[in-house]
Amino acid sequence: METAVTKTGTEGKTWGGGNQPLKASYGKMMMWFFILSDALTFSGFLAAYGFSRFKFIDSWPIADEVFNHFPFLHGVDAPMYYVALMTFILIFSSVTMVLAVDAGHHLKKNKVILYMFLTIVGGLIFVGSQAWEWKNFIKGEFGAVETRGGNILQFVDADGHRVALKDIAIFDHHNDRAQHERKNGLWFVKESPLPTYTVEEIKKGFAAKPNLLIRTQKLDEKGHKTILSREESLAKLNKEVVGVVEGANLHHNEYGSPLFADFFFFITGFHGFHVFSGVVINIIIFFNVLLGTYERRKSYEMVEKVGLYWHFVDLVWVFVFTFFYLV
Amino acid sequence: MGHDTAHESNTKRIWNVFYILSIVTIVEVILGIIKPEFMMTTYIVSMKLLNWIFIILTIYKAYLITWAFMHMEGETKGLRRSVVWTAIFLICYLVFILLTEGDYVYEVFKGGYKSWDF
Questions:
Q1: Cβ–Cβ contacts within 10 Å for residue A214, how many?
Q2: Extents of the domains making up chain A
Q3: What are the residue ranges spanned by the domains of chain B?
Q4: Which residues in chain A are contacts of B114 at CB distance < 8 A?
Q5: What is the ipTM of this complex?
Q6: Terminus of chain B with fewer CB atoms < 10 Å: N or C?
Q7: Does A327 contact B115 at a Cβ distance shorter than 8 Å?
Q8: Residues with Cβ < 8 Å from B96, sequence gap 6 or more?
Q9: What is the pLDDT of residues B79-90, one digit of tens each?
Q10: Which residues make Cβ contacts (< 8 Å) with residue A165, sequence separation at least 6?
Q11: Which chain B positions have a beta carbon within 8 Å of A35's beta carbon?
Q12: What is the CATH topology of the domain spanning A26-140+259-326?
C-alpha cells in the first residue's frame, strides 16, 4: 500500500520513512490498538465488578441459581446449560470467521461468502440468546422481600427448596391500592410500579404456613445460603422487611445484591452492544464480498480486520462467562 | 501481514483449536455444575482451587483465541509485545488494586464499623 506515499529518496535507510517495522498495514495495526484500548475498557468494568464482589464476598448471589433456565424446559433447573450453549455458539462463529479469513487469503470468494454468512447467523443467535437471558433475569422467578437495610430475604420450605411469593401471599382484596400515576394526585409525581403482593399479604401468608423459612444472603463456609430457624424467620420478617421484590432491575434484585444486577446489565449489555455492532460491520463487509469489491482489490484484508474485531468479542465473552457464571 | 509470504491453508489448525476450546469450555461447565468438594474447600492464596482452575483455563482460552484465531503468532515481535504486554501489565495492576481495596471494604463491613443488616 504505497499509493499516496511521496518518495523522499531516502528509502531503504532505517529512518528514511516508508518503513513498516511492524510489518502490518495501517488499518490492521490500528485495529489491534483499538482492540487493546477496548480490552482495557472491559477490564475496567470487570475489575470494578471484582471490587464489588470482594466487598460482598460472603453474600454474593450464586450464579447457578440465577441463570438456570433453558428454552422449552420450563421449571426445570438447568444451571448454566444455556450459557454454555451460547458460549459454544460464539466460539463456533469465531471459527467460521477465521475460516472466512483463511478462504480470503486464497481469494476463494464463494467460501468467504458462506463462512461470513454463518458468522453473522451465529452472532444473531447469540444476541437473541442474550436478550432471552435478560428477560428471564428481569422477570425473576420466585420473588423475595427486602429489608430496611437493603438485604434480600428469600423463602424456602423445610427441605430448603425455594418457594415463590405467589404460593405464600394471602390476597386481601379490600386492601388493593390503585397505582398512583402522574395524571392524578400531585402533579407530575408518580410512584414506581406496585408489586403484585404487599408486604402485609406476604407476612400473613408466611405466618399461616408453619413449614416456611427465610433464607438470607449470607453464605456459609460451604458456599450455601444461610437458612434461619422458624422463630428467627418470623422475627426478621416482622421487624425488618419493608418491600417486595420481583425480578431484577438497577435498584432491586430478588437474587441478592443489586450490584450483581447492575454489573450484569452493564457488562453483558456492553458486550451485547459489541456483538451487535460486530454483526452490523460483518453484514457490511459481507455485502462488499458479495459485490466483489475485495475480489477486484485482490485482497481480502478487510475481512481479516473485521475478523479481528469479531474474535475480540469472543475473547471478551470468555472472560465474562468465567466471572459471571463460573467463579 | 507477517504471514503473507506463504498462504498455506490453516484449516486443520483452526479446527484443532476449535476442538480444544470446546473441550475446555465443556470441562469448565462440568466443574461448575458438580463443584467437586475438595476444590471448593482447598484455598490457594485466599481463593478456592476451583476458581483458580476456572481462571487459568480462561486465560488459556484467551491465549488460543488471540494466538490462533487473531493470528497474533504471525505478527512481528514488536506488534505482539506492544499489544499483549501493555494489556497484561495494566490489567494486572488494576485488578490488584481494586481487589485489595474491595477486600479492605469487606473487612470494614465485617468489623461492624458500619451497620448493614437491619
A1: 23
A2: 26-140+259-326, 144-246
A3: 1-75, 76-118
A4: none
A5: 0.91
A6: C
A7: no
A8: none
A9: 999 999 999 999
A10: A142, A143, A144, A155, A196, A197, A202, A244, A246
A11: 83
A12: Four Helix Bundle (Hemerythrin (Met), subunit A) (1.20.120)
